């Protein structure tokens, strides 16, 4: 018992209020406020609400004034022998000492319970922190691996776009070459009809297959013309372009076969 201003507390379990005015003391060394004492001890037989002792004796329960008047203090022990006075005082002090001890036990119990709760909460918090830490580590790992994957995709993307640009350049060169060859074909012969026919065949690509006897005009320039044609292509990196299946490839093959045959 933390004795606030040297005051006892009501022993009723749910009260623990500071005692003042009148208090009810019992033979089992318990004390109650006026409210709980008058309530609990009005019926018979009386039972101590703190320790369940039966209080049937005439002086087992006494309602006492905590701050007695000077007149009462002057008279209450008067006439008694010194040993009786000391005996009464010793018993009253023992009662007080028991109350102090009891309150101290209660406070220690509360403290240990709070301490245990604190430790339990600390343990839970530590476990939660550890699991959060683990989750965080796992997520960091995941982010790192995703970054790696993304970097890999970026690298592939730039490679592919570079290749695409290279193909575009090759295509443009080839297109230019094709246009100039077509132009040569058109102006290089006096036969307007043949020129027109060749132009048409070259555009469709199919006309050539149907009329294998005909040779385009530029091929009639002989070996020199063909080698120039293909050397141009190779210089421009057209070889790699022809590795893809395009109508151009078939057409070039046809041209070569026709010339060799
Ligand atoms: Zn009370
Ligand atoms: Zn009691």
Instruction: Give the biggest beta sheet.
Output: 3 strands, antiparallel
N-to-C terminal Cα separation, in Å? 122 Å
The distinct ligands, each listed once, are: zinc ion
* Overall tally of structural domains: 2
Spatial order of the strands in the main sheet? 2-1-5
- Given the structure, what is the number of helices? 8
Structure explained in plain terms:
α3 runs antiparallel to α4. The protein has helices at residues 34-40, 70-75, 82-187, 192-204, 206-210, 223-235, 238-242, 247-260, and strands at residues 22-26, 31-33, 46-47, 54-55, 61-65. It has 2 domains: 1-76, Zinc/RING finger domain, C3HC4 (zinc finger) (Herpes Virus-1); 151-260, no CATH class. The strands form 2 sheets. It has a 3-stranded antiparallel β-sheet with strand order 2-1-5. A two-stranded antiparallel ribbon has the order 3-4. It starts with 21 loop residues before the first strand and ends with a helix. The protein is mainly alpha-helical and 261 residues long. The protein has 8 helices and 5 strands. One zinc ion is lined by residues 10, 12, 15, 17, 32-33, 35-36. Keywords: Coiled coil. One of its GO terms (cellular component) is synaptonemal complex.
Topology of helices and strands:
Layout: E1 22-26, E2 31-33, H1 34-40, E3 46-47, E4 54-55, E5 61-65, H2 70-75, H3 82-187, H4 192-204, H5 206-210, H6 223-235, H7 238-242, H8 247-260
Antiparallel strand pairs: 1-2, 1-5, 3-4
Bound molecules: zinc ion (ZN) (2 copies).
One zinc ion binds next to loops.
Keywords: Coiled coil
Protein name: Cyclin B1 interacting protein 1
Biased composition (Basic and acidic residues): 191-202
């Amino acid at each position: 018992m933390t004795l606030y201003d040297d005051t006892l507390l009501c022993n009723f379990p749910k009260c623990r209020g500071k005692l003042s005015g009148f208090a009810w003391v019992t033979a089992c060394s318990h004390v109650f406020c006026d409210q709980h004492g008058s309530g609990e001890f009005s019926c018979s037989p009386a039972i101590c609400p703190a320790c369940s002792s039966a209080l049937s004796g005439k002086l087992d329960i006494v309602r006492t004034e905590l701050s007695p008047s000077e007149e009462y203090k002057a008279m209450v022990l008067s006439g008694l022998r010194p040993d009786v006075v000391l005996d009464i005082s010793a018993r009253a002090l023992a009662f007080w000492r028991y109350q102090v001890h009891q309150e101290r036990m209660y406070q220690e119990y509360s403290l240990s319970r709070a301490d245990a709760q604190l430790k339990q909460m600390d343990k839970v918090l530590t476990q939660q922190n550890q699991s959060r830490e683990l989750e965080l580590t796992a997520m960091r790992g995941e982010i790192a691996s995703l970054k790696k994957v993304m970097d890999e995709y970026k690298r592939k993307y730039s490679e592919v776009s570079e290749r695409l640009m290279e193909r575009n350049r090759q295509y443009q060169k080839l297109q230019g070459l094709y246009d100039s060859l077509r132009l040569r074909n058109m102006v290089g012969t006096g036969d307007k009809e043949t020129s027109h026919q060749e132009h048409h065949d070259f555009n469709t690509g199919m006309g050539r297959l149907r009329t294998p006897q005909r040779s385009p005009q530029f091929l009639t320039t002989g070996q020199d013309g063909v080698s120039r044609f293909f050397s141009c292509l190779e210089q421009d990196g057209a070889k790699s372009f022809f590795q893809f299946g395009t109508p151009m490839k078939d057409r070039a093959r046809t041209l070569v076969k026709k010339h060799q045959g």
